[in-house]
Amino acid sequence: MGSVVLSLDAELGWGFHDLESPPTARVDHARNGWKRLIDCFEEFDVPATWAVVGHLFLDDCDGTHASHPAGESWFAAERGRWRSRPELRFGDGLIERVNESDVDHEIGCHSFSHVLFGDRRTDRALALAELEASVDAAGEKGVALSSFVFPRNVVGHRDTLAESDFSCYRGAAPARRFDELPGGRPLRKLAEATIDAPPLVSPYRDEFGLVNVPASLYLFGFEGAARSVAESARGDPVVAAAKRGIDAAARREGVFHLWLHPNNLVASRDTRRMRAVLAYLARKRDAGGVSIETMCEVAERVGITP
Ligand SMILES: [Zn+2]
Ligand SMILES: [Zn+2]
Fold first, then answer.
1. What is the whole-number distance in angstroms between the Cα of residue 244 and the centre of ligand 1?
2. How far is the CA of 206 from the centre of ligand 2 (A)?
3. Confidence band for 222, pLDDT divided at 50, 70 and 90
4. Cα 59 to ligand 1 centre (Å)
5. Lower Cβ count inside 10 Å, N or C end of the chain?
6. How far apart are CA 23 and CA 56, in angstroms?
């Protein structure tokens, strides 16, 4: 029997602060989506790893971050268009809600200000500073960080994670056989969501002693018009794909690792998708068919297995 892991890129505005035109609906629904997700997990008693942007642990800041090596321009949105939108820049009670939930969630890290670790402009000192600032800000709130999710999944500077006492990270999903499909991205997404079972992954310890818990399926990677067409034809294809992955984890060894952003929960159909996946997962778990783990629980398990 395998297990299922859910990880969340919890970032409010920070996932988009460097973009010229951030997706307005996702930004505006960021806090609501976060709360809705807490409720969904409570309803089905499912724990998740909440990889939180470190800046959200702060209560306040002037938006300069003068000693941060990314430079003041990196924080321009804080001083500009989001100056009067503190709800996008600070957690303001949301992290506490996760901590105080009846479900035993893990709080992990999604960098301090969404710096892309694998970007060629990000040097080692910047990566290290992002981790240090996160560890400090979380520590102030009594939270110890162990799991890391790379902003936009761009893996880089893993040595700095080991140096900062992290135990694991979410690595890239294995390549799918549809990657070479002609017809471009929408067709590939459709094929992945409707035809194939998303992959089970095998977490392993890397050369830095960190456990890589690769992703299996992004629950909101298949959106827009293609989603509407597929849904109207035969129900939500992503729910069907998630069920196939959960079934696979029940049959075999391995991890089925689902991920999403709280700000993906924009419309009621998004919550419907989430509840359908969690309901199916909880049923399987309650019947003894599959276990549910957080990322750091996987790291502990893999770490002690030689
Ligand atoms: Zn700030
Ligand atoms: Zn992110």
1. 42
2. 23
3. confident
4. 9
5. C
6. 20
